[in-house]
């Protein structure tokens, strides 16, 4: 479409204003929730991975996409930079891809896991990569030759992994276990905590911080003794990051808020409140106070973690609440955690998961146009209020093994009934 001379002049004027100032816009380019963020060692680039299966490399100077990487067959759950600026991506297809920036195909693909990969970590010396998977294992990969070693012992999904400054490794899982692996022998010290664990980070002084489904952060000494605890969110903590100096912790909750915590004093300094959807990923920039967050709405935002203020302009506006028409409906409130991945109407743009329009009466993995896991295609399940209730009673991993769906359960029978009633009303054609 041709633009008028006036439009062109306005565009040039706006570009000049933004290019010559420190004003930043939200980064918009993904078609689904942003599951992972990483900053390059030189602080110039940002890497984002999404449930839409794409990875984008962004310039932090211009807030523009430098490259879109497409390889994975499922959502991208973890991304990382190496010291030489190579990129690493991993996700629901259980594969790890190693890339050179600018190339359209991976340099190498690492295979071995048999379930979604949830997290990655690079060793301090850059020689090893650790991957945490829902196959209940951690793998250590040599970045020189691609060989791997399996660390076993977790009894449920492994959701987080981080290297300690001394080269040791920490992993956390849904089995309540935090494991401190003493490399190279690989013998772990095991700490059992009160709630399933979703994320972990290690400070420069070796202190371990983990985030759990009860919304709490727990701090442990390098040898595994609990040394502190902070209530970060009323909802599960799903992502965790630490500033480069270890002073600040940012913990994202599935409810859409991010807690900023002073690590030494254990004080909750402030809570960042976004437009509402879950925040799936967080990372500090090299200035140690600018925080980047990735949301379920597919947008990357900047925040000043010291003041709690957003940085930049949401140039295309805040998205409308997709459940606004159901205000006061208890079933809609229960469903809100599902909005990140599913639409209620097939007229909306597809998110990470299939639309739920016409759900009841449909056989599992039969919706045309959506790429389902092979494991689901062999199952004899038809979606009804009863089967949906069972899915959330025992959890997707138990009811639909091999699913890409994040593990979540609804413990209350009343809440499950409210959800299934709501879906019957909201998804009927």
Automatic annotation (TrEMBL):
Pfam families: Cytochrom_C (PF00034), WD40 (PF00400). Residues 326-427 form the Cytochrome c domain. SMART domains: WD40. The keyword Heme applies. Keywords: Electron transport, Heme, Iron, Metal-binding, Repeat, Signal, Transport, WD repeat. Residues 1-25 form the signal peptide. WD repeats lie at residues 27-68, 69-99, 110-151, 151-191, 272-313. This is Cytochrome c domain-containing protein. It comes from Bradyrhizobium diversitatis. The keyword Aminoacyl-tRNA synthetase does not apply. Gene3D superfamilies: Cytochrome c-like domain, YVTN repeat-like/Quinoprotein amine dehydrogenase. It comes from the Bacteria. SUPFAM superfamilies: Cytochrome c, WD40 repeat-like.
């Amino acid at each position: 479409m041709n633009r008028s001379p006036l439009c062109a002049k306005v565009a040039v004027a706006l570009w000049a204003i933004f290019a010559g100032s420190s004003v930043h816009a939200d980064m918009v380019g993904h078609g689904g929730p942003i599951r992972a963020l990483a900053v390059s060692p030189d602080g110039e680039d940002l890497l984002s991975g999404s449930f839409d299966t794409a990875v984008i490399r962004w310039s932090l100077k211009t807030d523009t996409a430098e490259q879109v990487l497409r390889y994975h067959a499922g959502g991208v759950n973890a991304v990382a930079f190496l010291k030489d600026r190579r990129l690493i991506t991993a996700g629901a297809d259980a594969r790890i891809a190693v890339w050179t920036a600018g190339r359209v195909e991976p340099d190498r693909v690492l295979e071995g896991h048999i379930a979604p990969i949830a997290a990655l970590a690079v060793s301090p010396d850059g020689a090893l990569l650790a991957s945490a998977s829902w196959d209940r294992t951690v793998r250590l990969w040599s970045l020189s030759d691609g060989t791997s070693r399996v660390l076993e012992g977790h009894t449920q999904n492994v959701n987080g992994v981080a290297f300690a400054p001394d080269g040791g490794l920490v992993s956390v899982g849904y089995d309540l276990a935090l494991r401190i692996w003493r490399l190279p022998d690989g013998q772990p010290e095991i700490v059992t905590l009160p709630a399933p664990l979703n994320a972990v980070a290690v400070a420069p002084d070796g202190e371990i911080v983990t985030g759990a489904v009860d919304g709490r952060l727990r701090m442990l000494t390098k040898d595994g003794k609990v040394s502190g605890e902070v209530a970060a969110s009323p909802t599960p903590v799903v992502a965790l990051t630490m500033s480069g100096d270890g002073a600040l912790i940012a913990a994202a909750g599935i409810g859409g808020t991010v807690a900023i915590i002073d690590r030494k004093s254990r004080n909750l300094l402030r809570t960042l409140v976004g437009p509402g959807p879950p925040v799936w990923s967080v990372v500090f920039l090299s200035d140690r106070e600018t925080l980047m967050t990735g949301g379920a709405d597919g947008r990357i935002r900047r925040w000043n973690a010291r003041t709690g203020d957003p940085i930049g302009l949401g140039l295309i506006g805040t998205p409308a609440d997709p459940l606004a028409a159901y205000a006061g409906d208890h079933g809609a409130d229960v469903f809100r955690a599902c909005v990140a991945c599913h639409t209620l109407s097939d007229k909306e743009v597809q998110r990470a998961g299939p639309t739920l329009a016409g759900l009841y009466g449909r056989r599992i993995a039969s919706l045309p146009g959506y790429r389902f896991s092979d494991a689901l295609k062999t199952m004899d399940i038809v979606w009804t209020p009863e089967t949906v209730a069972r899915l959330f009673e025992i959890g997707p991993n138990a009811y639909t093994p091999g699913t890409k769906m994040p593990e979540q359960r609804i413990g209350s029978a009343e809440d499950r009934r409210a959800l299934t009633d709501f879906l019957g009303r909201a998804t009927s054609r």
